[in-house]
Write a structure and sequence with these properties.
This protein is of the alpha+beta class. The protein is built from 4 helices and 5 strands, in the order ααβββββαα. Strands 1-2-3-4-5 form a 5-stranded antiparallel sheet, with helices on one face. Helix 1 runs antiparallel to helix 2. It is globular and about 35 Å long. It starts with a helix and ends with a helix.
Amino acid sequence: VQKFLEDTILKDKEKGEVIFQLREIVFKIFPNVTERIIYGGIMFSLEKDFGGIFVSKKHVSFEFTNGYEMKDPNQFLEGTGQYRRHLKIKLLSEIKEKTVDFFVKQVV
């Protein structure tokens, strides 16, 4: 995970900072969470995988394994798959604007 973070920061400092802050939210809400690199991003697990952070060319995506079950009053979640939904984060300010912590708290 550390190498992934270092490589991302070297390539794009803004995306690296977004990832850092997203991870901080996850670890604050779930101190016992585990993380691993899979599918080119960081996957978070409690008893099961619940979501992950993935970097694309234009944004950082926070994917939620069972996002279809989440409350989303402002319709920030994107995706039309059977289960998975995601938040696209292009700027640091969007972490707060899109209430990432609200969604992370729902994964239990």
